[in-house]
Specification:
Blueprint (H helix, E strand, L loop, with lengths): L2 E3 L4 E3 L6 H18 L4 H30 L2
Antiparallel strand pairs: 1-2
Helix pairs in contact: 1-2
């Protein structure tokens, strides 16, 4: 998925979208949800699911690297 930030005209990659950026986006979406209603709930949920997915992937990678470090 390619996202373009209009004011910067920069094309983002998956690597550009960090957990921290997603967490900021979830706060913005929470404010939008509060102000404009449930119509934006699916977007909020999608952002939260992406955060959880990234955290799990990061954990699995850390486990794999630890296994290699512990290998005799």
């Amino acid at each position: 998925m390619k996202v373009i930030i209009p004011q910067k005209r920069k094309q983002l990659t998956q690597e550009d979208i960090t957990i921290e950026l997603l967490q900021e986006a979830s706060l913005v979406m929470a404010e939008i949800l509060q102000q404009y209603g449930d119509i934006y709930l699916p977007i909020f949920i999608r952002v939260l699911k992406e955060i959880e997915k990234r955290k799990h992937q990061q954990s699995y990678k850390e486990i794999a690297l630890q296994m290699l470090a512990d290998k005799p």
